[in-house]
Amino acid sequence: MSQDVSFIADAMKQAVPWVKTTGIEFEEVSVSRVVASLPDDETLRNHVGGPHAAVMFGLGETASGAVVMAAFAAHMGTATPLVARADISYKKLALGPLRAEAVLGRAAEDVLAELESGTRPEFPVTITITNAEGVTTGEMVVVWTLKPTR
């Protein structure tokens, strides 16, 4: 039986006001994969007409946060997810609406087992950012950790 994570999109918009401000939408949400999209908005553009680098990073980080929330929703009372580090590569000038696909890089069960053993786990989420034509404009890896709630 798969876990119902349909609440994640609304939860992200409520918990992270920036998500609503930028207009990020969630097209797909599962416990191992999230697809988020960012509409083309001239107020978010840079000097070359595409979304500012910080906005692209924010889209990718938001998608990664949503997949982490989906994967570990049942454990939010015992652990707090935090970004440990992130890396982004800008591959091609991004113009127009963007889409970020975030994929959990380790099985949630393995991460939880490590947490339960007393170790603070780290796990990657890989993100591919594409334009409306499906061309990759950015690639990211966000490494998350689960901090035990004391």
What does this 3D model show about the protein?
With about 150 residues, the protein is an alpha+beta fold. The protein has four helices and six strands, in the order ααββαββαββ. It has helices at about 10-15, 15-20, 55-70, 110-115, and strands at about 25-30, 35-40, 80-90, 100-105, 120-130, 135-150. Strands 1-2-4-5-6-3 form a six-stranded antiparallel β-sheet. The longest helix has 20 residues, at about 55-70. It is elongated, with a radius of gyration of 15 Å.
Features:
single chain; 150 residues; alpha+beta; six-stranded antiparallel beta sheet; 4 helices; 29% helix
**How do the strands of the widest beta sheet line up side by side?**
1-2-4-5-6-3
Oligomer, anyone? Answer: single chain
Helix-strand string: HHEEHEEHEE
Global structural class: alpha+beta
Count the helices. How many? 4
How widely separated are the two ends? Answer: 31 Å
Detail the poorly predicted runs. none
- How many distinct beta strands? 6
- What percent of residues adopt helix (DSSP H or I)? 25-40%
- Evaluate the radius of gyration: 15 Å
Beta fraction: 35-45%
Largest sheet: 6 strands, antiparallel
Average pLDDT works out at 94
Overall body shape:
elongated
